[in-house]
């Protein structure tokens, strides 16, 4: 017989680096065409005029200008509306 009980597999030992998500240029900041404004998972912020969204939901500047964040209501699939932030370049 063994003197030591079964230890089992250790869990929660893997560690991955952070994804560096968030707002890269705040409201009032200057951007050039192609600059990253917001890195996000999902559409928490929506692209507005002067911006475009890449396939991983990153919002880029489509032209040179100043970043502006505005609140707007977006209709959800269920029919109710929810507030979302729209990112635009003016």
Could you characterize what this model shows?
This protein has one domain: RNA polymerase II/Efflux pump adaptor protein, barrel-sandwich hybrid domain (OB fold (Dihydrolipoamide Acetyltransferase, E2P), Beta Barrel). Helix content is 0%, strand content 41%. The chain is built from no helices and eight strands. The chain has strands at residues 22-23, 30-31, 36-39, 45-47, 51-53, 59-61, 65-75, 81-89. The strands form two sheets. The chain has a four-stranded antiparallel sheet with strand order 1-3-6-5, with no helix packed on it. It has a four-stranded mixed sheet with strand order 2-7-8-4, with no helix packed on it. The chain starts with 21 loop residues before the first strand and ends with a strand. The mean pLDDT is 92.
Strand-helix topology:
Elements: E1 22-23, E2 30-31, E3 36-39, E4 45-47, E5 51-53, E6 59-61, E7 65-75, E8 81-89
Radius of gyration: 21 Å
Classify the secondary structure makeup into a structural class: mainly beta
* Helical run tally: 0
Report the average pLDDT across residues: 92
Q: Portion of residues in helices? A: under 10%
* CATH-defined topology: OB fold (Dihydrolipoamide Acetyltransferase, E2P)
Spatial order of strands in the largest sheet? 1-3-6-5
User: How far is the N terminus from the C terminus?
Assistant: 76 Å
Low-confidence stretches: none
User: What is the CATH superfamily classification?
Assistant: RNA polymerase II/Efflux pump adaptor protein, barrel-sandwich hybrid domain
- Beta-strand residue fraction: 35-45%
